[in-house]
Design brief:
Elements lengths: L3 E12 L2 E12 L3 E5 L6 H8 L7 E6 L2 E2 L5 H7 L1 E3 L12 H10 L5 H7 L2 H21 L14 H13 L5 E5 L7 H16 L3 E5 L3 H7 L2 E6 L2 E6 L1 H5 L2 H11 L3
Parallel strand pairs: 3-8, 3-9, 6-7, 7-8
Antiparallel strand pairs: 1-2, 1-4, 4-5, 9-10
Helix pairs in contact: 3-5, 3-6, 5-6
The structure holds adenosine-5'-triphosphate and magnesium ion (MG).
């Protein structure tokens, strides 16, 4: 069995009296595709926000490669090898597709983001490397032809692919995807599924939140189910699909309970 790369211990987030994430223990094994599912409001995005330092942890710990990274500032997350996409797409809408990806690369070139802003000499030396790598990455996600289009002009599904490309530019060991197929039509969904498989086959670990059951069941090695902040089940797709607690959580939600 592969090693655990990402782990949470009793991870919790309270918003006032609301336990959005309630003492969640989760272990993600290196090289796997690990799904997180659960009804709306289950705490999935909040969980990602805790992993990536976007919000303060109420209680518990996050470990990456065995190292305690609880409370890490978000700007240091890429540096340790973790990168994410957002449920509400966060691209630089009025920059080109290629420039969006370049921003990801500059988090790991020696000039960094500041150099990219002031365009100093070190930045210009990096620039050739970054442009080449950026185009290669766009090729990988199938967006090379749109390299010089504005991000704002891409279809919704294509913007989601660009978010994945930008996250990959930081060369993450672990890629966190928050609803990568949301708003996509069936053919875009199967394309994004292929892309996730391709990324995984290159050895990266993927944690994916998704509502599309077919996609998640086909893609994941392990699935964690959250409901009202609590982990209610974890297992293979077949185990999770037949779990009575999971079924009642979803049925309860459908009834508006
Ligand atoms: N900043 C915040 N302040 C207060 N409550 C919040 C905040 N962020 C999230 N919540 C609440 O925490 C709970 C979990 O929200 P979260 O967005 O993590 O759910 P989710 O599982 O990602 O849902 P969805 O499937 O709809 O994206 C919800 O009740 C939500 O309203
Ligand atoms: Mg969410």
């Amino acid at each position: 069995m592969s090693d655990v790369i990402l782990e949470t211990r009793a991870l919790s987030k309270h918003f006032g009296g609301l336990k959005a994430v309630d003492s969640v223990d989760m272990s993600v094994r290196e090289g796997t595709i690990h799904g997180i599912i659960g009804p709306n409001g289950a705490g999935k995005t909040t969980f990602f926000n805790l992993l990536t330092g976007l919000i303060e942890v109420t209680r518990g710990a996050v470990l990456f490669g065995g190292r305690d990274i609880t409370g890490i500032p978000p700007e240091r997350v890429a540096g340790i090898g973790m990168s994410r996409t957002f449920q509400n797409i966060k691209l630089f809408r009025f920059m080109t597709v290629l420039d969006n990806v370049k921003v990801g690369f500059h988090t790991r070139t020696k000039t960094g983001l500041l150099g990219a802003v002031v365009r100093n000499a070190a930045f210009r030396a990096d620039e050739t490397f970054v442009a080449e790598q950026g185009l290669e990455l766009l090729d990988f996600v199938g967006l090379r032809k749109q390299a010089y289009n504005l991000a704002a002009n891409l279809s919704y599904g294509t913007q989601r692919r660009l978010e994945i490309a930008r996250a990959l530019a930081t060369d993450p060991k672990v890629l966190l995807l928050d609803e990568p197929a949301a708003g996509m039509n069936p053919s875009e969904k199967s394309e994004v599924m292929e892309l996730i498989r391709k990324i995984s086959s290159l050895g990266r670990t993927i944690v994916v939140i998704e509502h599309d059951m077919k996609l998640i069941m086909n893609l994941c090695d392990v699935i964690t189910v959250l409901n009202q902040g609590l982990k209610i089940c974890e297992g293979t797709p077949a185990e999770v699909r037949n779990d009575p607690d999971v079924i009642s959580a979803y049925l309860g939600h459908a009834r508006g309970a």
